[in-house]
Design a protein that fits this description.
The complex is a heterodimer of chains A (433) and B (280). Helix content of chain A is 66%, strand content 7%. Chain A is an alpha/beta fold and 433 residues long. Chain A has a 5-stranded mixed beta sheet, sandwiched between helices. Chain A is elongated. In chain B, strand 10 and strand 11 form a beta hairpin. In chain B, the strands form 3 sheets. Chain B has a 6-stranded mixed beta sheet with strand order 5-6-7-3-8-9, with helices on both faces. In chain B, strands 2-1-4 form a 3-stranded antiparallel beta sheet, covered by helices on one side. The radius of gyration of chain B is 22 Å and the shape is globular. The chains are: A alpha/beta (433), B alpha/beta (280). Chain A binds chain B through residues 2-3, 6-7, 10, 13-14, 17-18, 268-270, 272-280, 433, and chain B through 48-51, 68-69, 71-72, 74, 76, 78-84, 86-87, 91, 95-96, 98-101, 127, 143.
Chain lengths: 433, 280
């Protein structure tokens, strides 16, 4: 073990003394996390793609709510799953298994009929905090669907007349309005009723659009539920969401660096020299793996310390975080072993290594949010260690995963590590003759 | 004792070593002489267990070099400068020492001794990347000696070094010889083999062409000496097995204004054995 430790210490010394490597391993990920943290802190909107998975909980069970949910289902940009349990829906979204949930609360149908009374149509929306950039888009889509339902009411003269009559009855009953207001409102609704009477059965307003609603008239109200909260219900900041990605970028830098270092040692002859020592080949590789593991853990710890001290990120569970970092490090050590066997020169190894890692990052949500991807790409993302690494770290940092929930990402990461190390070692032994 | 018994090694169609049989007794400085591509490095690689022969056996004190315990008796200074540029000379030595299980205190003492031996005590803590080629070569050699091996394999130890470092390396090899270590010294510089080696094996295209002491090889394969006698009318060249007698004759004639004797050397031996120069 002492010899393996000596090998690892030597590699860590070499890493620390390589300033360019040090920058890309430790400081670039901080820049990445801060940059996207600042952007996501604004919760800006972005353009959408098809198939965003959304859970819909219809608590109203009215014709209007059914029609609204059906309109959501008909939209190719959304992938709707119905649910009856709001708590479960919140958990699924927080766990990252669904992008958002929409609650159609009781009274939705009644509100649709009485919009002139001033009661807005309420909807409750919760979006996965790691998809903060898409939250605006999802809310926009849902609002548009609600407005479409409203438009449908006006497009049908019969339903519009019924709504006008219902509203006049409500105006008669209400005590919230002065007699003058009641007279004006009844006059307006009566005129509307008369106007609709002469309209053809289909076509309604003929699709003409007006100049927009009057000031202050907002018939649809979207309530958002903040899912990015810690155990005490305190809101998480955007950096809690971006630092896991930053950590994975740092880990990828480490992996690429160590993959190249093995090729460099082979070409320089130091690897041959190590193999002339009493150490077996497997122990030489274990030394390299240990160095990569320690550097990876070091990157993660450093970034987490920076996140904690300078960006106010409070991980929800330190034991789960330790588990996640351990598993991520194991996975990327395995990947490093594989990458180190691919290239013959440092340049080719570096190029191939980064190409592979960037593809993993692209498909794993390290660059582009998964919701912007086609269905097959999302399926493919399951093969990306980046996805599971981010997921595991997020689980510990802000998703509030229990050990049970950590099992899936951590199990996959450990499997990647073990298979990668075994395959890499075998390929390495084969290439060394 | 290093013993090669009829070892063969081929890479595809290329025969690197074809039927080498050789014994190197303890305490000998043995030179393996041959041009680039002759099979010297492949032989070294099989000696240290990096390569397995296709057939035949290599034994180090009766043991298989694939056995880590056997390899621990060997110190190898590869032809490539197989040390870490970003570590200091001392750190390199300590690192390679640690691979052999030397404890830190003993390794520190040994590193200091070796740095003194290779004349780099004053640069012990400087990074190797700041060293000249010759200094780096000396560190490369020192790393092979950290665990005090009984057998030292030096693969082209003077390749690309300045005269000062070359001289220093010669002194180190002599010092190792005086300590009773077995040294295998591969080179394509014949003068190095002549200066340092008690026996020389001439190898080409994977085959051992001749094996003996330097003097015996020259006697047997070097051919005649050439005596050049300068006279007022020009230079006379005489090829002879008795150069002293020719010289005496020339001096007795009284008209010689200069004499020069060209004795055959290992270069001549190699030329006569293979029909080409060592550096071809």
């Amino acid at each position: 073990m002492r010899e393996i430790w000596a090998l690892a210490v030597k590699d860590l010394k070499l890493l620390i003394r390589d300033r360019a490597g040090l920058f890309f391993t430790f400081f670039f990920p901080i820049l990445y996390a801060v940059f996207f943290g600042v952007i996501m802190g604004g919760m800006g909107s972005s353009e959408g793609r098809e198939g965003t998975p959304i859970l819909v909980i219809d608590q109203d069970h009215s014709k209007a709510s059914e029609a609204f949910v059906a309109s959501l289902e008909a939209d190719s940009q959304l992938r709707i799953t119905r649910s009856e349990d709001r708590a479960e829906a919140e958990t699924l979204v927080k766990d990252g298994k669904q992008t958002a949930f929409v609650v159609v609360p009781g009274g939705f149908g009644d509100s649709s009929k009485t919009i002139f009374k001033g009661e807005p149509i309420r909807l409750i929306v919760g979006v996965d905090p790691s998809h903060a950039a898409e939250a605006g888009l999802i809310q926009g889509l849902i609002t548009a669907k609600a407005y479409e339902r409203l438009q449908d009411l006006f497009m049908s003269p019969a339903s519009a007349r019924q709504m006008a009559r219902d509203a006049m009855a409500e105006v008669d009953k209400t005590s919230d309005m002065s007699p003058v207001q009641k007279t004006i409102m009844k006059s307006f609704l009566g005129s509307l009723d008369s106007f609709m009477k002469d309209m053809p059965a289909a076509g309604g307003f003929g699709g003409t659009s007006g100049e927009g609603g009057g000031a202050g008239f907002n018939p649809i109200q979207i309530e958002t539920v903040d899912l990015a909260t810690d155990k005490s219900g305190k809101a998480m900041n955007a950096f809690a969401i971006t630092f896991p990605q930053g950590i994975v970028w740092g880990v990828m830098g480490c992996t690429a660096g160590f993959g190249i270092s093995l090729v460099s040692e082979r070409n320089k002859g130091t690897l041959t020299r190590l193999q002339t020592s009493p150490l077996s080949r497997s122990r030489v590789l274990l030394g390299k793996a240990l160095a990569c593991f320690l550097a990876t853990v070091g990157v993660a710890v450093l970034l987490l310390v920076v996140a904690r001290l300078f960006f106010g990120v409070h991980p929800q569970s330190l034991p789960m975080l330790a588990l996640a970092v351990f598993c991520v490090a194991v996975a990327f050590v395995g990947i490093m072993m594989l990458l180190s066997t691919i290239g013959k020169t440092e340049a080719s190894s570096g190029g191939i290594g980064w190409a592979v890692l960037l593809v993993c990052a692209m498909f794993g949500g390290g660059m582009i949010p998964l919701m912007f991807m086609k269905g097959w790409m999302v399926t493919l993302s399951n093969f990306s260690p980046v996805k599971w690494s981010i997921y595991a770290i997020e689980g510990a940092v802000w998703r509030g995963f229990t050990f049970d929930k950590m099992l899936l990402p951590c199990g996959i990461l450990l499997a990647i590590g073990v298979v990668g190390f075994a395959a890499g070692s075998r390929l390495f032994a084969w290439s060394e003759g | 004792m290093i013993e090669f018994t009829d070892i063969h090694k081929a890479f595809g169609e290329t025969v690197a070593v074809g039927g080498l049989t050789l014994s190197i007794p303890p305490g000998e400085v043995f030179g393996l002489l041959g041009p680039n591509g002759a099979g010297k490095s492949t032989t070294i690689a099989m000696t240290v267990g990096l390569l397995r022969p296709d057939s035949g056996t290599v034994r180090i004190d009766g043991g298989d070099p694939a056995d880590p315990a056997v390899r621990a008796r060997l110190g190898v200074a590869p032809q490539s400068l197989a040390i870490y540029d970003d570590l200091s000379a001392r750190e390199n030595l300590l690192f390679f020492g640690s691979l052999y299980g030397i404890d830190r205190a003993a390794a520190g003492k040994r590193a200091a001794e070796l740095l003194d031996l290779v004349g780099l005590s004053d640069r012990a803590r400087a990074r190797v990347k700041t060293f000249s080629g010759g200094m780096t070569r000396r560190v490369n050699l020192a790393c092979a000696l950290m665990h005090d091996p009984a057998i030292v394999l030096l693969d082209e130890p003077t390749a690309g070094v300045d005269p000062q470092s070359r001289h220093a390396i010669f002194e180190i090899v002599r010092s190792l010889r005086d300590q009773g270590r077995t040294i295998v010294y591969t080179t394509h510089y014949m003068e190095e083999a002549q200066k340092l080696c008690s026996r020389v094996g001439v190898i080409d295209k994977g085959r051992l062409l001749a094996l003996d002491t330097v003097d015996a090889l020259i006697r047997e394969h070097g051919g005649d000496s050439v005596v050049r006698i300068e006279r007022a009318g020009g230079e006379e060249r005489t090829q002879t097995a008795e150069p002293v007698a020719v010289l005496q004759q020339a001096l007795a004639s009284g008209d010689a204004i200069g004499v020069h004797v060209e004795r055959p050397d290992l270069e001549t031996v190699f030329l006569n054995l293979t029909g080409r120069s060592l550096r071809d």
